[in-house]
Structures are given as structure tokens and as C-alpha cells.
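Progress report, Aim 2. The chain analyzed during this reporting quarter is listed below.
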Amino acid sequence: MPKRLKHNSDHTQKHHTPTIDNKAIAVHLEALLTPAIFNQQKYYKQLGLRDRIINLSTFIGIILFMDWFY
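Predicted C-alpha cells for the chain:
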């Protein structure tokens, strides 16, 4: 009896598709995030802390937003 070849589903061919480039979403995100980032930088300077472009909570919010809508 011939041996049956094992089929490993981990090695199946995956299809990688790029995300849709939507300029309206990019403009909306930039309009939302730019003022928040500059206000946060100003707040850090008032407190005498070092400059940070983005904090962890803002970064997590952006990632969750992108996961939700993409």
C-alpha cells in the first residue's frame, strides 16, 4: 500500500492583498490627529517633560481605529 502524503495546512499559499488607499480617510485621520499631537507636545513642555510625539494611549487608539475600519 502506498504511503499517503501528509498535508500541512500551515504551508498553504496565502493571499496578501494591499489595503485600499482611501484619501478621504487619510485626510480625516490627519485632521483629527495633528491638533491632538501638537496640543500634547505643548502640554509636555508646560510640565517640563521631554518632548514626545505620541503617547501609548493615543497609539493604541490609532491602532484600534485602523483595525476596526480596515
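Helices lie at 23-47, 56-69. The radius of gyration is 22 Å. These observations will guide the mutagenesis work planned for the next reporting period.
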